[in-house]
Amino acid sequence: QVHLVESGGGLVQPGGSLRLSCAASGSIFGINFWAWYRQAPGEERELVGGLQTGGITNYAESAKGRFTISTDNAKNTMYLQMNSLKPEDTAVYYCFARGVRSTGPSVVNFDSWGQGTQVTISS
Fold it and tell me: Which of 12, 40, 80, 109 is most buried, judging by how many CB atoms fall within 10 Å of its CB?
């Protein structure tokens, strides 16, 4: 199993910044895709942005220019730097990872989700 744990959420005033972290643990052979999603009350879960092997990133229009995804591959950790936060960014943020894990004698693909971290933007 691969476990993802998010941290860094909280209450921030509009215009402020937050940095979320997502730490992956388990028998990870490699992660080739990371992503952040968010879900506001009463809304569908939506993609915030993703990062592929090779450093290729893509962001939702609402996140472009304000959010940045990065990783520390040595720590199997992904980050989401969020700047110029707005009340409409309020949501539970989830991380997602897709990759390959070891099962001992072989490897298998995996998809894993974190448990979510609350981000609230309010004055």
Answer: 80
Token match 């720590």: residue?
75
What does each C-alpha distance from 77 to 23, 60, 113 come to in angstroms? 4, 21, 13
Contact present, 111 and 96 (Cβ < 8 Å): yes
9 neighbors 79 (Cβ within 8 angstroms): no
Give Cα 11 to chain centroid, integer Å.
18
pLDDT, tens digit, for every residue of 43-77? Answer: 999 999 999 988 899 999 999 999 999 999 899 99
Q: Which of 49, 89, 91 is nearest to 70 (CA)?
A: 49
As given in the structure block, the two tokens for residue 22 are: 């997502």
Say how far residue 86 (Cα) sits from the centre of its chain: 18
Report percent pLDDT > 70 for the chain.
Answer: 100
Q: What is the C-alpha to C-alpha distance for residues 41 and 29, in angstroms, rounded to an integer?
A: 35
